[in-house]
TrEMBL record, chain A:
GO MF annotation, one: ATP binding
Ranges of residues in domain ABC transporter: 11-260
Pfam families given in the database record: ABC_tran, oligo_HPY
Any single GO BP term: transmembrane transport
InterPro entries: AAA+_ATPase, ABC_Ni/Peptide_Import, ABC_transporter-like_ATP-bd, ABC_transporter-like_CS, Oligopep_ABC_C, P-loop_NTPase
Compartments reported by the entry: Cell inner membrane
Name the record gives this protein: ABC transporter ATP-binding protein
Main location: membrane
Family: Belongs to the ABC transporter superfamily.
Any single Gene Ontology cellular-component annotation: plasma membrane
Domain of life of the organism encoding this protein: Bacteria
Automatic annotation (TrEMBL), chain B:
UniProt keyword Mitochondrion, yes or no: no
Organism encoding this protein: Gemmobacter lutimaris
Signal peptide: none
Keyword line: ATP-binding, Nucleotide-binding, Transport
Domain ABC transporter stretches: 10-260
GO molecular function: ATP binding; ATP hydrolysis activity
Name of the featured protein: Dipeptide ABC transporter ATP-binding protein
GO BP annotations listed: peptide transport; transmembrane transport
Amino acid sequence: MPDGAMPVLEVRGLKTVFHTRGGSVHAVNDVSFHLMPGELLGVVGESGSGKSVTMMSLIGLLPSPPADVQSGQVLLGGQDLLKATPEELRKVRGARIGFVFQDPMTSLNPVFTVGSQIMAPLRKHMGLSKAQAEARAVELLELVGIPDARRRLKSYPHQFSGGMRQRVMIAIALACDPEVLIADEPTTALDVTIQAQILELVKELRQKLGMAIVWITHDLGVVAEIADRVMVMYGGQVVEQAPVKELFRNPRHPYTRALLKTIPKLGGQRGERLQVIEGQPPILGFPPTACPFRARCAHAFARCEAENPARRPVDGLPLSQGHDVACHWSPEGAEDPSQEAAHA
Amino acid sequence: MRDTTTRPLVEVRNLKMYFPIYSGVMRKHTGDVKAVDDISFDIYEGETLGLVGESGCGKSTVGRALLRLYEPTAGRITIAGDDVASLSPEALRRKRPTMQMVFQDPQASLNPRMTVADIIGEPLDEHSGLSKAEKLARIYELMDAVGLNRTFANRYPHAFSGGQRQRIGIARALALNPKFIVCDEPIAALDVSIQAQVVNLLEDLQDKLGLTYLFISHDLSMVRHIADRVAVMYLGQIAEISPVDALYARPLHPYAEALLSAVPEPDPGRDGARQRIILKGDVPSPANPPKGCNFCTRCPKVIPVCHEVEPRLQEAAPGRMVACHLIHPIDATRAGETGRTGAQEHSQQQGV
């Protein structure tokens, strides 16, 4: 790494396969990425693209069987989490890596008070006394913008609205000052006005706490707003990775380019007809030998069928630092990509 | 633009849909959830009216009440001349073919034990006297229309992807040549790359068959794309109805303004360009809406009168109806007549 800056989290060649009665599903294929301190990495992809499975593989949240994390390295401050014992992993989860799930309705336990759920990791990981944990819990609820925090500790999840519950989830994830926060579609189940509140909160928290965040979403609008760097996944692979402005201005992968064109915009010219990506996402029954996007790709040619493209740098910088893409085709000679993206 | 005649196909007047709350040992009627509280609007023939709002604002309830899948508490719903709200069960049954629905979740709205042909053919069994051969021909015709391969007619829904299942739901809705279709979040359960396919299909069918849509969605960008006019709902009432371009260019109601500003734009270069309005707090309970304007508890522009007097939906600009004390009606003498004047004027402009 340049400048001596070390990533907080580095993932190399991660492969996860699910063994089911209907056959194997190769959900994550050779995924590599890293996360710098204080950085927000957006992970974009459709359902089934492997984005959630990747993140859950990192910290051993997938039940095995059926899941089988076959190979790769997950380095958190030098420690390989894939080699860690369950006991060691337990110390990482909640303490060093916080997790916020999509659905705040189902990820809180309905029979415990919100206070006891925030205090659990504090007492377990940080060894705080009950009084200390309670004081910290009040602090956390205030941090995530829940008014009347001390009284609300005694409330049960059903007494909170959706947006408030997601704030509680974030408070729990932040409880032990994790180095990394993984947020899996944290605003997808929320209304736009509440989503705007949560995005605002996350921006504030980043400034205050400076932690590194992985933000999984399928909403390119959310990514454009909060991410520093974006990783686009398709068919269990990383197909493109770039700093956020670069990705939106100069998308290289046909999937990214098509995705940016299919979504209607709130401003600008109202299009007569939406661009579509024909066909369906792939079913990942076999280890990939060809490009997963070839069947839906407007630019596919013989090589795409013969060889799964590796990630290659676009701008000469090392992989995962600048802009890289996994595609045999190159938009040069085609239309000017900046023009295409500029009408956004 | 699509042809919009001056004739409204659907006229809704003072529609109320209350769900009773029973509590205590005696199950006494102690209150109502006012899911839809006194709303009026028109949908013109051949147009798409977008209906947007946050979850729980009553938009799906409006869609269901319009087709009388619920028994409305009060109000008139005139669809192509008949008051659907007061039709007898038999007359309602005869009316059903003209009005259909596409549901949000294609997984839940298709019977897993019926083949695609059975699903699409069921409305034909119920409402038409077609022979077996005629019926099959019609089923194939419908499958072609929505872009499903005929050879899949004998497969079951589980064999299809989400987007294809939604096509089955659309084919079923089209089977009886309806005039009016309520699309209740038809793309919410689909992936981004599939959403565009379904929206394009809905638009093609509208052009071909002259359909009128009520398009219920929380996806404001997609509504901007598909709708001609948009109604913004908040807590069971309509805050604003405007032609789509006017609304997105300059929303008049403070809630519409906040709602539109909250949508994240897929364009990282525009950070500073847009002023985001962050609403404080949550939507109040529809069982106990606030006194006065129902948005007064969260409105950033609230003034004292908002806590006292309920604003009426009035014409604020040609074709634009807004319920807000801060927005002055263009003509005070006409303001008493809700909905009609403005909407007609608008459609005349469009018809030219």
